[in-house]
Amino acid sequence: MLHRSTKRPQFFYTTAPLPCPYLAGRTERKIVTELTGPEAEPLHDRLSRAGFRRSHNIAYSPVCPGCSACIPIRIDTGRFTPDRTQRRVARANALLRGETVPARATAEQFALFQRYQKARHQDGDMAAMGFYDYRAMVEDTPITTGLIEFRDPDGQLVGACLTDWLSDGLSAVYSFYEPGLEKRSLGTYAVLWLVERALQLGLPYVYLGYWVPLSRKMAYKARFQPSEILLSGAWRPIEAYAGPMLEPLQPVASP
Question: What's the Cα-to-Cα distance from 180 to each of 107, 111, 118, rounded to whole Å?
Fold first, then answer.
């Protein structure tokens, strides 16, 4: 007697072309699939290792014709060594308290999110998000997700990072912070905090999404060393990259 599997097939779709958010004059296309049901967590794990990212209940990866500028990147937490600039950032924010809270949207978070968007991404789509859009971004997740809230000694919320928990690491989904504190480099500090937390949990990686060497706003991810990038289906040391860049792969830093 033949046995018919009751497991639902996983469908993947390709999006229509849209303007690239990182490189002017280029278009982007993505392959997407839904994360749902009891298999959402292990599927998200596998797809993350294959270079996918999550937004709401969708996992996606760029499949732009003739372009491979977006490169998945993750930090090797066990071997990570902060450079001089990152050590300075850690000292500047030593009094901040980071706390993991459930993925539940609050008015306090949203007010900070709005200030950040208006100051940093006023022309972007996210600047027009209302509270219910923000709540969907935070709460519409089929996997283990939390928010890292960063507060100053007075208890004021100054930064947050939406984070997914994977079997082999933490995945930084989206971070935002008080725009008036730009000199504190809170985005960098959030990554440093995630590295430390991953080490405490015995997790080998922090996933940072896509490194785009030709985009100034995305090239910074290469400064967290050592890192690995996904090339030709395999995770390799970032030094294996031999493509075009805007900045040196490893900035020179004094000890």
Answer: 19, 14, 12
